[in-house]
Design a protein that fits this description.
globular; mainly beta; OB fold (Dihydrolipoamide Acetyltransferase, E2P); 75 residues
């Protein structure tokens, strides 16, 4: 099964070797037809602790690393 890849902006460096990435997508409202933005946050594994807040990164789905981390940063 292929791994999902997402692109988003780093909004937090919550812990050691962990970043929080906010991924936004645009969807059309089912009734009004207006395009709206939906976002979701993902905890990702950053083994080198070198990614800063505000940087756009690619993340890839992986095996669970901890309770919340199931994504890893693709360098």
């Amino acid at each position: 099964m292929p791994r999902r890849n997402l692109t988003g902006r780093v909004v937090s460096r919550s812990g050691d070797k962990t970043i929080v990435v906010k991924v936004e997508r645009r969807v059309t409202h089912p009734f009004y037809g207006k395009t709206i933005r939906r976002s979701k946050k993902y905890h990702a594994h950053d083994p080198e602790n070198k990614i800063q807040i505000g940087v756009i990164v690619n993340i890839r789905e992986c095996a669970p690393i901890s309770k919340l981390k199931t994504w890893e940063v693709v360098y």
